[in-house]
Amino acid sequence: MQDEMPHTEAEWKQKLTPEQYRVLREKGTDAPFKGALLHEARDGTYRCAACGNALFASDTKFDSGSGWPSFDNALPGATKQITAASLGMSRSGIPSEAAGMSTEVVCAQCGSHLGHLFQDGPTATGNRYCVNSVCLEFAEDKK
Ligand SMILES: [Zn+2]
């Protein structure tokens, strides 16, 4: 997988489906309650649909009711968080508290957009990674 990593947006466009490209590379959002992995309940690993990087373990997945696959933790080093402030959006008049509530989450390996991290999770971590189904690929654990 590594050697096939695209370097340009044109290469990404070839590798990904139009819907994947729109969400992963143009920071789009897929339709809630429609994602193929929303109700996935098997044991396994959720990987980046763009580069295959392992992102989330199935035991961190929970039903947030948001309509998107949700996780209370990411695998160590798998993702990067981009706050609105770090993008310079704090100057656009968004209150810092509101901006802080929606932290963008990207794949640490390829930089593709995955979803957002909120701090209102119901579990002990307090994290709620709200991830677009189209950005994920599920690999079931071998029994
Ligand atoms: Zn990736």
N-to-C series of helices and strands: HHEEEEEHEEEE
Coarse shape: globular
The CATH C-level name is Mainly Beta
Number of spatially distinct domains: 1
Counted beta strands: 9
CATH architecture assignment: Beta Complex
Bound molecules: zinc ion
Indicate the proportion of strand residues: 25-35%
Mean pLDDT: 89
Description of the molecule:
The protein has 143 residues and is of the alpha+beta class. It is built from 3 helices and 9 strands, in the order H-H-E-E-E-E-E-H-E-E-E-E. It has a 6-stranded antiparallel β-sheet. The two termini are 24 Å apart. Bound molecules: zinc ion (ZN). Zinc ion (ZN) binds next to loops.
Topology of helices and strands:
Elements: H1 9-15, H2 18-24, E1 44-48, E2 54-57, E3 61-62, E4 70-71, E5 79-82, H3 96-101, E6 103-107, E7 113-118, E8 128-131, E9 136-140
Antiparallel strand pairs: 1-2, 1-9, 3-4, 4-8, 5-6, 6-7, 7-8
The chain binds zinc ion.
Label this structure with key terms.
143 residues, alpha+beta, Metal Binding Protein, Guanine Nucleotide Exchange Factor, Chain A, 6-stranded antiparallel β-sheet, 3-stranded antiparallel β-sheet, 14% helix, binds zinc ion
Brief summary:
The chain is an alpha+beta fold and 143 residues long. The chain is built from 3 helices and 9 strands. It has one domain (2-140): Peptide methionine sulfoxide reductase (Metal Binding Protein, Guanine Nucleotide Exchange Factor, Chain A, Beta Complex), CATH 2.170.150.20.
